[in-house]
Amino acid sequence: YRFDGRAIYQPRTLSLPRDLLDSVLGTRLPGRDVVRFAGQARMSARAAPGGWRIQAAPWRSDLLGPIDAVEEVVLARGVGPEDALVAPSRTLGGRRPEILFRRRFLPLLLGLGYQPLYHPVLVSCSSIDRLPGLRALRLSNAPSAEFGALRPSLLVSLLQALEVNVRHGYPQRICELGPILEPNAKSEAGARTAYHVGAILAADGAGFASAATLGEYLLRSIDMMGVRESAEIPGTIPGRAAEIHVAGGVVAQMGEVHPQVLAELRVVVPVAWIELDLTSLWP
């Protein structure tokens, strides 16, 4: 064939270093297995100092260097689940006690028939304006009209949920557990992030007593009792709203939503609301 003008292609030789194979594979593979897997990849392997010499077929133009030979052996062996190695640590990972404390409340509300919801922290400016006196941080460059402010209370999001569910029947029981941002000049970011759990009951018989009873039930679930004091809360009926104090601090707010707010939302039944500050309740 040498003199008739036809080209003769010979196998190409590549190196397969042992240290590179071990680092990629994550474990040490016996030499006989390396030869066997190389054969399954249609490559011949022979032992050489520091590893093996690989004979690759002429048509395998994709095999350019040692890392390509290692990849062929690894794929021929198969990539599957391996026994995990636990990194050295003094402690094992787990949920923080504060997170476990927060997670105790939604199952209680779910057992009472309340439907958990999840809303973004960003809310519309109109939802803030419908509650006169409510202080909230507003975005100077809002992405849209629906996300122009940061909610300072879960009441804002829960009322939005009532607004979009006016076509459904009553009673409606909804709740939420999530973060809120309260304006705070002493904070470096200008706001205090806290986690609240809130619930709303929209029904014919809903009133201040409904919210007060639910608030006492949630506090008793963590073996805590508070002192209820009358308060003026934006969006509620004067004289039909209160705060719960524990150790001199406010840990909950409750009340009946003002009829003017309900008329704007097109809600035709009374609404009772309760909201607990879980960040303040956490010891």
From TrEMBL:
Pfam families, per database record: B5 (PF03484), tRNA_synthFbeta (PF17759)
Cofactors named for this entry: Mg(2+)
Any coiled-coil regions, as ranges: none
Record's keyword terms, sorted: Aminoacyl-tRNA synthetase, ATP-binding, Ligase, Magnesium, Metal-binding, Nucleotide-binding, Protein biosynthesis
InterPro entries from the UniProt entry: aa-tRNA-synth_II/BPL/LPL (IPR045864), DNA-bd_dom_put_sf (IPR009061), Phe-tRNA-ligase_IIc_bsu (IPR045060), PheRS_beta_core (IPR041616), tRNA_synthase_B5-dom (IPR005147)
GO BP of this protein: phenylalanyl-tRNA aminoacylation
Segments forming domain B5: 9-84
EC number: 6.1.1.20
Annotated GO MF terms: ATP binding; magnesium ion binding; phenylalanine-tRNA ligase activity; RNA binding
Cross-referenced PANTHER family: LEUCINE-RICH REPEAT-CONTAINING PROTEIN 47, PHENYLALANYL-TRNA SYNTHETASE BETA CHAIN AND LEUCINE-RICH REPEAT-CONTAINING PROTEIN 47
Protein name per the record: phenylalanine--tRNA ligase
